[in-house]
């Protein structure tokens, strides 16, 4: 491989030779003649040139400008430089500091086109073929050597035929001095290291790069970002984006690994479009896991974040349009989670929080990058802990609380089973904080099944066959075939248990109603009854709801709690009238005061639930409540 840098037109360096036998094209020669008369600086010895002189020359005119004696003398001694012709792959040079002539061995012909005098020239000529950006380095290396600071070694880009630059390593030293110690001759050798450097670069890249997508690998990402975080001044921010493709495994299965690989390469390229500064890095951490580090100025934080999120939306859309998302393909999307860290955050911590944001992007089916927020962290901690609990005996971590349901005479006729979770700190966590998480983790049916086992075991243990117990069920349970099969097999084992209810909400209407209806019918065959929870808060039409085999309505506590408002009283009256008309029984939830009970009881409601009678209680307290009732 060849490192090819072509110099721009403006940087074009003019070569011209003043000797009569030089082969310059006519036009160039005339141009040169003009320049020579007008612009040529007075001749000086190479040693007299200052750094500024050399460096400021954009168009250095190549001119050997030696008198014929010097030329003849120097030419005759060129041969000795070719001793190495077949032995080593170097350009050898010999610089006479007295007359300024630099001689080269014949290998030099590989570089410069002219065949006559190019083996002998001046330092100005030489600098002309060095890349402008590298000239300073070379000049100061030479100056130090001539100033007796020892041999020089430097690396620079040198222009060869076809205006291509190669990378060379040049080393030389003073080999001859006068009686005062003043340098007279410097000899050195130039080695083409383009390929060597390129190989080193390739090796380095292999060690740093992800071979499939070409973005960086995890090792390089950690090393570089860590370094940048340590070095960065306090006004530099680092945001981390964690990205992965939902259902990536299915893409491999469905379309083959080549398609999967192509998609990953595309994702890598797309993520590169988010980078704006040289410090930004995109890396692939695992199969379809990518991480991006973006650096930006503190005062531009919100501007930068807004543009990143806007760009992320385009990327997510591009991935979706990639061509694999057809009706026959699994649903796959790129998900992105971003954490814009605080200065003091460690890289690990940043990655961790970006991952949390990513998990929320997945949960929300976000069409763009989701930024981390504090509450996400709490949820993540809950999720992790739940995960651990679910791997163990559920009875050690979950508790079935029971809230009594009473009849018009305030006798307990049953209870609602309400789940509680005891976390690592020993606190009793209410369902509002973990039910959704269990649902997202698709573990709620497993816990519901455990609740059914618990209730059946209590009914049998305490002979509560005359009581009715209800368990809350989200719509997803009906399509979970494992749950349905397990539950039906459990119910079949206990045919004596006849008073179990499932509380469903109006959200079932958003699902496949026909399929849910079929599952409900199967459950009815196993003596399950259905109660419609939180009635009055949803938006479903009553007609639709009544397509389902429901036998009970639960009037939502929001109406009961605000009974002083006429509007709420009207709703309660309407629900009760309708329920009675349709031969459905009613439970009024959230009774906290005697007035509420009196009012709703007077309307003919059959059952009541609320703190007025009892809060949800653990099993032993519920046993005590039942026993007290029996005694009274
Ligand atoms: P929900 O089904 O409407 O359950 C009634 C909630 O109202 C319970 O809250 C109960 O403690 C509370 N409550 C009862 N009486 C009163 C009262 O007089 N005043 C007030 N202000 N509140 C009262 P909890 O136990 O915190 O449960 C909250 C929700 O969590 C439940 O609402 C239910 O939707 C859900 N949930 C509880 N356990 C489960 C479960 O095992 N599975 C599912 N899917 N959801 C559950
Ligand atoms: Ca309920
Ligand atoms: Ca309710």
Please describe the structure with a list of short key phrases separated by commas or semicolons.
single chain; 632 residues; alpha/beta; Beta-Lactamase; Alpha-Beta Plaits; TIM Barrel; 3 domains; nine-stranded mixed beta sheet; six-stranded antiparallel beta sheet; rod-shaped; binds ligand C2E; binds calcium ion
Summarize the structure.
The model is unreliable at 1-64 (pLDDT under 50). Strands 13, 14, 15, 16, 17, 18, 19, 20 and 21 form a 9-stranded mixed β-sheet that branches. The longest helix has 20 residues, at 301-320.
Helix content: 25-40%
Give the overall average pLDDT: 83
Number of structural units classed as domains:
3
Give the CATH superfamily of the largest domain.
EAL domain
Which ligands, by name, code or SMILES, are bound? ligand C2E, calcium ion
The level 1 CATH classification of the largest domain is: Alpha Beta
Radius of gyration: 42 Å
What gross morphology would you assign? rod-shaped
Extended strand count? 21
| Fraction in beta strands | 15-25%
Biggest β-sheet strands, sense, barrel? 9 strands, mixed
Straight-line distance between termini: 97 Å
Low-confidence stretches: 1-64
By DSSP (H or I, 4+ residues per run), the number of helices equals 21
Structural class call reads: alpha/beta
CATH architecture assignment of the largest domain: Alpha-Beta Barrel
Q: Which fold name corresponds to the CATH topology of the largest domain? A: TIM Barrel
Topology, please?
Blueprint: H1 26-39, H2 51-56, H3 68-76, E1 90-96, E2 102-104, E3 120-121, H4 123-128, H5 135-146, E4 152-159, E5 165-177, E6 183-192, H6 194-208, E7 216-217, H7 218-231, E8 236-245, H8 248-255, H9 257-272, E9 281-284, E10 289-297, H10 301-320, E11 334-340, H11 347-363, E12 370-371, H12 374-390, E13 398-406, E14 412-422, E15 428-429, H13 435-440, H14 444-462, E16 468-472, H15 481-493, E17 500-504, H16 513-525, E18 528-535, H17 542-545, E19 552-555, H18 557-561, H19 566-581, E20 585-588, H20 594-602, E21 607-608, H21 619-631
Parallel strand pairs: 7-9, 11-12, 14-16, 16-17, 17-18, 18-19, 19-20, 20-21
Antiparallel strand pairs: 1-2, 1-6, 2-3, 4-5, 5-6, 8-10, 8-11, 9-10, 13-14, 14-15
Helix pairs in contact: 8-9, 9-10, 14-15
């Amino acid at each position: 491989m060849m490192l090819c840098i072509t110099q721009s037109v403006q940087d074009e360096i003019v070569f011209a030779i003043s000797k009569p036998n030089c082969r310059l094209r006519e036009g160039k020669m005339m141009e040169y003649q003009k320049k020579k008369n007008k612009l040529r600086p007075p001749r000086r010895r190479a040693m007299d040139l200052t750094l500024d002189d050399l460096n400021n020359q954009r168009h250095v005119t190549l001119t050997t400008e030696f008198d014929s004696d010097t030329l003849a003398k120097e030419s005759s001694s060129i041969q000795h430089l070719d001793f190495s012709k077949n032995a080593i792959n170097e350009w050898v040079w010999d610089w006479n500091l007295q007359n300024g002539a630099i001689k080269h061995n014949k290998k030099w012909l590989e570089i410069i086109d002219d065949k006559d005098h190019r083996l002998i020239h001046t330092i100005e000529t030489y600098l002309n073929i060095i890349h402008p950006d590298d000239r300073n380095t070379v000049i100061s290396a030479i100056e130090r050597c001539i100033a007796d600071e020892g041999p020089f070694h430097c690396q620079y880009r040198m222009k060869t035929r076809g205006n291509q630059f190669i990378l060379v390593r040049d080393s030389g030293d003073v080999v001859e001095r006068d009686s005062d110690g003043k340098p007279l001759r410097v000899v050195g050798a130039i080695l083409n290291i383009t390929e060597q450097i390129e190989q080193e670069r390739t090796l380095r890249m292999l060690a740093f790069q992800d071979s499939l997508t070409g973005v960086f690998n995890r090792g390089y990402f950690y090393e570089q970002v860590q370094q940048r975080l340590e070095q960065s001044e306090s006004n530099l921010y680092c945001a981390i984006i964690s990205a992965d493709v939902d259902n990536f495994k299915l893409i491999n299965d469905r379309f083959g690994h080549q398609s999967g690989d192509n998609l990953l390469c595309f994702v890598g390229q797309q993520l590169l479009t988010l980078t704006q500064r040289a410090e930004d890095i995109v890396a692939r951490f695992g199969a379809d896991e990518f991480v991006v580090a973006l650096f930006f100025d503190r005062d531009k934080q919100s501007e930068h974040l807004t543009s990143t999120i806007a760009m992320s939306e385009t990327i997510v859309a591009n991935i979706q349009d990639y061509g694999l998302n057809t009706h026959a393909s699994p649903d796959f999307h790129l998900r992105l989670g971003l954490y814009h860290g605080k200065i003091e955050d460690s890289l690990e911590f940043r990655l961790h929080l970006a991952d949390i944001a990513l998990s929320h992007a997945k949960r929300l089916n976000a069409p763009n990058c989701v930024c981390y927020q504090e509450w996400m962290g709490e949820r993540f901690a809950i999720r992790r802990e739940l995960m651990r609990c679910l791997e163990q005996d559920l009875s050690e971590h979950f508790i079935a609380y029971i809230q009594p349901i009473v009849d018009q005479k305030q006798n307990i006729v049953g209870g609602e089973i309400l789940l509680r979770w005891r976390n690592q700190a020993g606190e009793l966590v209410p369902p509002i904080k973990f039910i959704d998480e269990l649902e997202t983790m698709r573990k709620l049916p497993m816990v519901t099944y455990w609740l059914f086992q618990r209730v059946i075991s209590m009914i049998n243990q305490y002979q509560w066959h005359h009581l009715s117990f209800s368990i809350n069920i989200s719509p997803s349970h009906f399509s979970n075939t494992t749950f349905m099969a397990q539950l039906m097999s459990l119910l079949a084992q206990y045919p004596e248990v006849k008073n179990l209810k499932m509380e469903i909400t109006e959200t079932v209407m958003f699902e496949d109603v026909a399929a849910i209806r079929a599952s409900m019918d199967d459950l009815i065959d196993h003596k399950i009854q259905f109660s419609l929870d939180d009635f009055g808060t949803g938006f479903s039409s009553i007609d639709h709801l009544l397509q389902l085999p429901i036998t009970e309505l639960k009037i939502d506590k929001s109406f009961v709690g605000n009974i002083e408002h006429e509007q709420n009283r009207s709703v309660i009256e309407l629900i009760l009238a309708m329920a009675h008309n349709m031969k459905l029984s009613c439970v009024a939830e959230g009774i906290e005061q005697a007035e509420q009970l009196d009012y709703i009881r007077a309307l003919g409601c059959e059952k009541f639930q609320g703190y007025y009678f009892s809060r949800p209680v653990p099993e032993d307290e519920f046993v005590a409540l039942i026993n007290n009732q029996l005694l009274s």
